[in-house]
Amino acid sequence: MDDVFNYGNFLNKVDWLLTWDQPVDIQGVDARILTWEQAITLSELKLRKRIKMAWDNPRENINWEQIARWIPAHKIMVYVLIGYWSTEKEDLMRVMKLKELGISPFVMPYDKHEEYQKCFARWVNMKAIFRNVPWDLYYKNKFSKTGIMNETQETEA
Fold first, then answer.
1. What is the pLDDT of residue 47?
2. Residue 109 region, left (φ>0) first, then alpha (ψ -120 to 50), else beta?
């Protein structure tokens, strides 16, 4: 991960950006070591896009609740690696926790050809589906003969 805090005096650089009053795109904030001072400073910037963080290992204890108090949750996007260190249950737990906090998850499958990982990534990354269709229903219908679209069309007829 490309950590923005590793490049010299971070606070001086942010002060410089604030004087220019231009929108910026912050990539690669390491949530594991984010401090209150850094988070407050980041939240003062005009953002072009969301601040990008990652949650690769479900066993890492990252305090997302605290981060969402420091930086408005709608300003954060978290890359979630699945299929490397994690089980399907851990994948679901991570994306649902982020969703509950108002943080936008973006799933990155380790093996893009594995059917579960491909399907889970599509479910999470297609925001209209993620907001409206529970995972168990999506997964079940994804592999049934009728599918979600056919069930919806039948009830409308």
1. 85
2. beta
